[in-house]
Amino acid sequence: MKTDLSPRIKVIVYGLMTVLLIPFVFPTWWMVTSSVKPISDIFAFPPDIFPRRFDFSTYGRVFELQPFAQQYWNSAYIAALVTAGTMMFSSMAGYAFARIRFPFANTLFMIVLIGLLIPAEVTIVPLFQMFLGWGMINTHWPLVLIPIFGAPSVFATFVMRQFFIALPKELEEAARVDGLGRFKIFWTIALPLARPALGAVAIFTFLHSWNLYLEPIVFLSSPENFTLPQALTQFTDAYGGALWNVQLAAATMTALPVLIVFIIAQRQFVEGLAHSGLKG
Amino acid sequence: MASVTLSDVKKSYGKAAVIHGIDVDIADGEFVVLVGPSGCGKSTLLHMLAGLETITDGTIAIGDDVVNDLEPKDRDIAMVFQNYALYPHMTVAANMGFSLEHRRVAKDTIAERVKWAAGILGLEPYLDRFPRQLSGGQRQRVAMGRAIVRDPKVFLFDEPLSNLDAKLRVVMRGEIKALHQRLKTTTVYVTHDQVEAMTMADKIVVLSGGRIEQVGAPLELYDRPANQFVAGFIGSPSMNFIPGQVGASGFEADGVTLPCPAGTPIGTKAIYGVRPEHFTLSPDGIKAEILIVEPMGSETQVTMKLGQTSVIGLFRERVAGMPGETIGITIDPAKTHLFDAVNGQRLG
């Protein structure tokens, strides 16, 4: 923002920004504060913006009602595997599409991109049939394999390809003269330089996997196999009524790593997308 | 070190032929400059020599070995690129030692070689820096350092000075020349700058449209250009060309008769060539009308009308005349050139 705005304009601009901030910040604020309120206070009218009474036992009950630690671990290791796998495959595919001249490369890339246009809901039934045939229902395999070879990876491949296209050709020529083969050029020259794009891919993929909801509810049936988004729907009383404060405590814990990752890496995320020629 | 021989080397991209059969012999330790305008094929030729481009036909030999099918790494060459092509994520020392490290040379030896190269190029204080922390000239030196640590048979330079400012270019030109004199490694250097070619080369290969126009020592090309293209390309400002025909008393152009060397049959239609620096001021000489006077301090460049043709003269003296005035000039016939009016080849 320009710094030469007059004080009056500044007040208006900052005031407007503050108002616009409310719809983005309020849900998070409500989630965090409600997680430490007794359930009756959540529905108090007029609503309490700041909690009057604190009840931290909700956080303990999260672990009593569900195998939440196990579910946390499930989400974490699945997201880690998906992130690592997507980074590996998308960087290699992106490099191949950007740098290796082979017949119909552009046509093939277009076909790959078309994958982005197909909604997950369209493919979920055939995928269920496929994984059923492979005996992988109620395992984590579908949640790992689908993102790595599905739409998120296609998007990641696109981001990586755009980055590698912009990498000077002379660097590779210099590496060839220095004695490197194709894979070593990719591994020791291109990939280390692609860190901003890889960072963006990592964050995007991690978030996607962490927030995945449709696939877990289709493929998983045992609570100990659940991932966090699916587990969040399970905090109910004996009559199926939602335990809002417990659920919001679980939601707060679920959102925490995402917030931390994004706060730490948001700059890299934006830079990475900028490198890809995309607007963040 | 090794000689390099290019025999009938051709290159086509599909049906488009870009190199039409190049024959060049480069002696062991020679500094050869490939020069020509943009698109003449000089960089393509260098890339073929490096193994970065395949060749369509012909043979390339380094020493006694035909290297047509060898990968760049197996040709024992080192290349310096136009934009330096330093690995941005590696320090200067790592950049310079990278190829040796990849060839599993002992760490002590690598450190020794890098130190030796850095010493020659004045890079010792910068070994731990990254390329982004260096100036253009320093990056260029690192690129050269990366080439010399390997002690290759042949150095290849692809327009290495074109990204530098004019002053630094002159400095680096001297450094490259000094490096060659010190190491005596066979060098092939590509440039579009004829001044670089003239000042650095033992031998110049002038290319145009994927063909060799002339091969020779710098002064040989300057004194006896084989054709009108080479005559116009070598020398700055360019040679003046005046169309006309050989007459009994000299070269008869439109509105003026100029002295020319004897031996060309009278009546021959030709292009008369004279370099700007080969005009001499003389009050009794041929009259020319001044169009523009450009004083440059050490010399004066004058655009003038000789007969009906506009030409450029370069004089050591200061020219006091104003546009529209007339000056007298003389030309030494021994320093003039005649080219065939049809094919541009040298006459006589």
Automatic annotation (TrEMBL), chain A:
<feature type="transmembrane region" description="Helical">
    <location>
        <begin position="12"/>
        <end position="32"/>
    </location>
</feature>
<dbReference type="Pfam" id="PF00528">
    <property type="entry name" value="BPD_transp_1"/>
</dbReference>
<feature type="transmembrane region" description="Helical">
    <location>
        <begin position="242"/>
        <end position="265"/>
    </location>
</feature>
<dbReference type="GO" id="GO:0055085">
    <property type="term" value="P:transmembrane transport"/>
</dbReference>
<protein>
    <submittedName>
        <fullName>Multiple sugar transport system permease protein</fullName>
    </submittedName>
</protein>
<keyword id="KW-0762">Sugar transport</keyword>
<keyword id="KW-0472">Membrane</keyword>
<feature type="domain" description="ABC transmembrane type-1">
    <location>
        <begin position="72"/>
        <end position="265"/>
    </location>
</feature>
<dbReference type="InterPro" id="IPR000515">
    <property type="entry name" value="MetI-like"/>
</dbReference>
<keyword id="KW-1003">Cell membrane</keyword>
<feature type="transmembrane region" description="Helical">
    <location>
        <begin position="144"/>
        <end position="164"/>
    </location>
</feature>
<dbReference type="GO" id="GO:0005886">
    <property type="term" value="C:plasma membrane"/>
</dbReference>
<keyword id="KW-0812">Transmembrane</keyword>
<keyword id="KW-1133">Transmembrane helix</keyword>
<keyword id="KW-0813">Transport</keyword>
<comment type="similarity">
    <text>Belongs to the binding-protein-dependent transport system permease family.</text>
</comment>
<feature type="transmembrane region" description="Helical">
    <location>
        <begin position="109"/>
        <end position="132"/>
    </location>
</feature>
<feature type="transmembrane region" description="Helical">
    <location>
        <begin position="185"/>
        <end position="207"/>
    </location>
</feature>
<dbReference type="InterPro" id="IPR035906">
    <property type="entry name" value="MetI-like_sf"/>
</dbReference>
<feature type="transmembrane region" description="Helical">
    <location>
        <begin position="76"/>
        <end position="97"/>
    </location>
</feature>
TrEMBL record, chain B:
<dbReference type="GO" id="GO:0008643">
    <property type="term" value="P:carbohydrate transport"/>
</dbReference>
<keyword id="KW-0762">Sugar transport</keyword>
<dbReference type="InterPro" id="IPR027417">
    <property type="entry name" value="P-loop_NTPase"/>
</dbReference>
<comment type="similarity">
    <text>Belongs to the ABC transporter superfamily.</text>
</comment>
<dbReference type="Pfam" id="PF00005">
    <property type="entry name" value="ABC_tran"/>
</dbReference>
<dbReference type="InterPro" id="IPR003593">
    <property type="entry name" value="AAA+_ATPase"/>
</dbReference>
<dbReference type="InterPro" id="IPR012340">
    <property type="entry name" value="NA-bd_OB-fold"/>
</dbReference>
<dbReference type="InterPro" id="IPR047641">
    <property type="entry name" value="ABC_transpr_MalK/UgpC-like"/>
</dbReference>
<dbReference type="InterPro" id="IPR040582">
    <property type="entry name" value="OB_MalK-like"/>
</dbReference>
<protein>
    <submittedName>
        <fullName>Multiple sugar transport system ATP-binding protein</fullName>
    </submittedName>
</protein>
<dbReference type="InterPro" id="IPR003439">
    <property type="entry name" value="ABC_transporter-like_ATP-bd"/>
</dbReference>
<dbReference type="InterPro" id="IPR008995">
    <property type="entry name" value="Mo/tungstate-bd_C_term_dom"/>
</dbReference>
<feature type="domain" description="ABC transporter">
    <location>
        <begin position="4"/>
        <end position="234"/>
    </location>
</feature>
<dbReference type="GO" id="GO:0055052">
    <property type="term" value="C:ATP-binding cassette (ABC) transporter complex, substrate-binding subunit-containing"/>
</dbReference>
<keyword id="KW-0547">Nucleotide-binding</keyword>
<dbReference type="GO" id="GO:0016887">
    <property type="term" value="F:ATP hydrolysis activity"/>
</dbReference>
<dbReference type="Pfam" id="PF17912">
    <property type="entry name" value="OB_MalK"/>
</dbReference>
<dbReference type="InterPro" id="IPR015855">
    <property type="entry name" value="ABC_transpr_MalK-like"/>
</dbReference>
<dbReference type="GO" id="GO:0005524">
    <property type="term" value="F:ATP binding"/>
</dbReference>
<dbReference type="GO" id="GO:0140359">
    <property type="term" value="F:ABC-type transporter activity"/>
</dbReference>
<keyword id="KW-0067">ATP-binding</keyword>
<keyword id="KW-0813">Transport</keyword>
